[in-house]
Write a structure and sequence with these properties.
The complex is a heterodimer. Chain A is mostly helical. Chain A is built from 11 helices and 2 strands, in the order E-H-E-H-H-H-H-H-H-H-H-H-H. Chain A has a domain at about 105-285: MetI-like (MetI-like fold), CATH 1.10.3720. By secondary structure, chain B is of the alpha/beta class. Classes of the chains: A mainly alpha, B alpha/beta. At the A-B interface, helix 8 and helix 9 of A face strand 5 of B.
Chain lengths: ~300, ~260
Amino acid sequence: MTVLGKSAKGGLPAAAATLPPPGDPAAVSITLVRPSVARRHRAGRIPIPRLARRVIGPVLVLIGWQLVCTQGLFTSVEVASPIAVLDAARELWSQDVLQSNMLISLQRVAEGLVFGVAAGVALAVLCGLFWVAEDLFDPVIQAARAVPILGLVPLVIIWFGVGEFPKVFLIALGCVFPVYINTYAAIRGVDVKLVEAGQTFGLTRFGLVRRVILPGALPGFLVGLRFALVGSWLVDVVAEEINAQSGLGYLINQAQTTDRTDIMFLCLAIYAILGLVADAIVRTLERYLLVWRRGFQGG
Amino acid sequence: MTTEVQAPANTAVFASGVTRTFGNREVLRGLNISIAPGEFAALLGRSGTGKSTLLRILGGLDRDYGGEVLVPQRRAVVFQEPRLLPWQRVLPNVALGLAPTGPNDRGRLRARSISALSEVGLASHARAWPVTLSGGEAQRVALARALVREPQLMLLDEPFGALDALTRARMHGLLRDLCARHRPAVLLVTHDVDEAIVLADRVLVLADGAITVDLPVRLDRPRDRSHVGFTALRTRLLDELGTSGGLCPDCPLVTTRLS
């Protein structure tokens, strides 16, 4: 859109002085544009629900996967088709193999998470609040963090044998570090102005921790929790593949010896679904715990 | 932490020979100040003269000072930013400064907090989240949070500096009313000369690490900014602050509003 500039009669004297007089052939011409393109809702367009839109991507992947398999690009030992995976699921379910192994894996992960997250939070609070604790523990934790947990597996077997404890121990270890690092950083990142405000209103040290520092560190803790959830499953698979007679990792390992690619894919798919569920749980948690961030009025 | 010392009679703030250095920069050099109970003092000074440093020392937030400082047990500070806890609704934020003294104390604290909120006209916002408040509303909540403790000393660190002119004028009226009702001693740190004259019983100027001007404000309330006494005092103070002829690029004093 082009509008020819005309010097307005009631314009500012200073501006008018620099503009050419009306009717001047050298009138200033400025190209005008809209500041933003207005959103227009096209008539007759059916709105697609958010959930449906989010499902489209995975469904397309599944269809492509099935097509690749039916086209015979891979043998069934190399890649199992989605339908073959479903069949495997049905087969293992009817034999009660799937449920029992999934349950035992879930239990190990849950136990490891509880202990790992608790230890991570405890260490973070100690180091975040007390300089002595930080100087004492933090270097040790940072060094331990650099050691790949999977490299510890043989040692853990020597120490604790092949029972439940070493698996839960490894999973817990995998959860400690992400929770520790994020929570600790969040505690140190709590706005000092809020801490000062609390101090001027006579909050005790415990009151400051409970009402200012811990709530302020909550978002950081939740980030750590997300990392811990992912890490716990990772460690679980490895722990079960190496020394277990049960669990999803064990199932994958068994499937390898019998060339049951469909079962391997099935277990991987279960991991993916469990990951989605865990993420949804943390999101829900965030929605409730961090409600103040969005300025939610009700509730 | 707090040791009780016998303060001179009829004094809410007593500070003598206060020093504070940052690195090798001496911000306060043997400053003396005393404020009577119920007295409203305004502290003016160019930026960087140590106004906020003094206020932080009086508020117990700065411990690395020299000299003698005595303040009442019940103090409250209002900062330039409201500093409300974003994860608590308005009411628990106001109750922040109230410690329960017994098991059945919660109801009483709640009632006191609600009445403090009503005093600043925000009782209906008790369940709102701080993020939903406007700047002026949040600062009123901060005032309620300070008042609810019935402080013997209120320290105000440029509490209206971030507000627009209209809201600021309304806040001045509110603060005057609240102080008239509760009678705390007040130390208002500001760089707005008009604000100081409108509100205070006494205006102090901090320069070169000490109080250089200490003037009573003997003008009738409500104070008229065009009154001869007002303009004379303003000119005098602006002069003391060194804005009359000098250049002061970061000095907001020149924004003295003539309404």
